[in-house]
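FAQ

Q: What does a record look like?
A: Structure on top, sequence underneath. For example:
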């Protein structure tokens, strides 16, 4: 079993998790492990049925085409091994009918006396080695007495592990006195954890965007009174007809799309010594996941309705949070929208999503006093931030674009009528 070709630009993956333990039996096409690439997490299915033998450990970086595991196709499935009845001494008489207990599978001790007894999984072995612990001192709770990752972690956290180490056997009088003193109510422990491949990729791309672009940010604020009134008035009818709520993201996406088509520089990107302009709008939506931020694009937003945009964003968000996004769904994008407001951000300077030339940052909506027709009123206000690459977009262009988006959001009827 070797790492398959995942994508043209992907040369290495990380084995993030084994789904079948070493020595376990697998069926054809059964997922045996998960690979984490630069963009997504993928399951790796078995190519045959048999006994699985690991050739790599969790957390290892593996090149495309490198060996991951072997499958012994001649090994029999454990459940198919016939049970041998215990021998009966020859006493010249016919033995009584054996009780059910006597013809059951061997006792746990006998069953555990196999390859699994006291044998740590790859992840557990790594933890034990890093903490100078022996597998003989750890009780395995896994199948057949195998030492699992959780067993190793428990052994490291257990105070008894310190007793078994030779260094702790000899202690000075001062240390004996200190050991009798009550423990402090605070700790200074720290630990390190290898960065996931997605986090490493995110870090690399963000640093690249910071260092290789002439990035600036311009700000404005928008009064969302009309947008909120529109949603309140038509939300029930919208849900009844389409089965999904009308959110802010589809309205912002439509407003940005209209402004992008009118100002193609903001929708362009640099390719070597050329500037590539797009006659379409693919808006990447920033989605927060447990593994990091992903930005899958919604393609051809200019041709989609509000309901279609909402369904597509929901589909991408669900897939992103369950790790089900495909590489094709992560590819593309001419402009990005990120909404830090869902986490309470009042103002920020978003970083460009290369090779795109601009990104719009949405923020939290706050009721603030503003001057309206010479009168002070309390309005739902949001700060907008547009980060852009000054190599492609001039300052006047960026400001004009943001003002257009602001006007469309403050008068959504003009957006709906394409005015």
């Amino acid at each position: 079993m070797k790492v398959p070709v995942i994508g043209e630009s992907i040369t290495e993956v990380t084995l993030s998790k084994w789904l079948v333990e070493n020595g376990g039996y697998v069926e054809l096409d059964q997922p045996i492990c998960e690979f984490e690439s630069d963009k997504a997490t993928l399951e790796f299915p078995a190519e045959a049925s048999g006994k699985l033998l690991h050739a790599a450990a969790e957390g290892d970086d593996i090149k495309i085409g490198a060996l991951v595991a072997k499958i012994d196709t001649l090994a029999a499935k454990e459940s198919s091994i016939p049970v041998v009845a215990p021998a009966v001494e020859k006493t010249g008489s016919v033995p009584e009918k054996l009780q059910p207990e006597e013809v059951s599978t061997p006792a746990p001790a006998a069953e555990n006396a196999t390859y699994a007894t006291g044998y740590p999984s790859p992840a557990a072995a790594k933890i034990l080695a890093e903490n100078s612990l022996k597998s003989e001192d750890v009780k395995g709770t896994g199948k057949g007495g195998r030492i699992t990752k959780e067993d190793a972690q428990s052994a490291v956290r257990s105070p008894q592990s310190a007793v078994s180490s030779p260094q702790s056997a000899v202690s000075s009088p001062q240390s004996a006195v200190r050991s009798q003193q009550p423990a402090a109510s605070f700790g200074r422990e720290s630990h390190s954890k290898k960065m996931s491949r997605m986090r490493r990729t995110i870090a690399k791309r963000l640093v690249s965007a910071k260092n290789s672009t002439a990035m600036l940010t311009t700000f404005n604020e928008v009064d969302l009174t009309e947008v909120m009134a529109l949603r309140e008035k038509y939300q029930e009818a919208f849900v009844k007809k389409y089965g999904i709520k009308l959110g802010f993201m589809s309205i912002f996406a439509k407003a940005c799309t209209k402004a992008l088509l009118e100002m193609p520089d903001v929708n362009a990107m640099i390719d070597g010594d050329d500037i590539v302009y797009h006659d379409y709008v693919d808006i990447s939506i920033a989605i927060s996941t447990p593994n990091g931020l992903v930005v899958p694009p919604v393609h051809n937003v200019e041709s989609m309705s509000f309901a279609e945009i909402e369904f597509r964003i929901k589909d991408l968000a669900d897939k992103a949070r369950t790790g089900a996004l495909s590489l094709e769904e992560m590819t593309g994008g001419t402009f990005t929208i990120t909404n830090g407001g869902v986490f309470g951000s009042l103002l920020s300077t978003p970083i460009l999503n290369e090779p795109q030339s601009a990104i719009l940052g949405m923020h939290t909506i706050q009721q603030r006093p503003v001057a309206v027709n010479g009168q002070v009123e309390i309005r739902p206000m949001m700060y907008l931030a547009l980060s852009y690459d000054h190599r492609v977009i001039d300052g006047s262009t960026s400001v004009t674009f943001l003002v257009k988006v602001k006007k469309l959001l403050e008068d959504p009827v003009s957006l709906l009528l394409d005015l």
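Q: Is there anything notable about this one?
A: The domain at 1-82 is CATH 2.40.50.100 (OB fold (Dihydrolipoamide Acetyltransferase, E2P)).
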